[in-house]
Amino acid sequence: MKEIIIYGGGEFGDLASAFKGEFESDCNLSVEIVTVDEEEIRRLNRELRATDAVTDVLSFPSLDGIFGKKLLKKDFPADLDEEGNLFIGSIAICVKRAGEQAAEYGHSISRELNYLAAHGICHLLGYDHMTEEDKSLMRAKEEKVLSKINLQR
Question: What number is the average pLDDT over the span 79-96?
Fold first, then answer.
């Protein structure tokens, strides 16, 4: 069973293994996760999304149109990293915002950071929340993955 390799986010190792079996691929997938401050997430949001505001998480998928599809190395040769993993994108998480949300929702910062990372990975895999149906599918995947590492609501 293929897995997700997370670069830059050592605290998300359990989350990476929780995504096993949650996508189809003939190779491991790789993701970059960076934690940033409010100033940096606002800059990224402003410059890349034309939204001048602090947010909790931003996802930057490197592949389009992959939702529900089997990801094959041969289809994305330019997106393979040095180890032969298929790079699916980057995620930026605002740690201060995650802490505020954890307090607001009454759960741990670890749960919130892992939720935001799972949310970001789902976006990289093509999930979205523009319609209620899409949102429901995405939330179900997030909760399924988080429950595998005992971080459910």
Answer: 96
Rounded to 5°, angle at Cα 68 from 62 and 71 = 55
pLDDT band at 86 (very low <50, low <70, confident <90, very high): very high
Please, what's the b/e burial string for 47-57 (b: 16 or more CB within 10 A of its CB; e: otherwise)? eeeeeeebbbb
Cβ count within 10 A of residue 144: 15
Which residue is associated with the tokens 């970001």?
A: 120
Structure tokens at 4: 């997700």
Cα gap 30→115, rounded to integer Å: 18
The number of residues making up the chain comes to: 153
pTM above 0.85, yes or no: yes
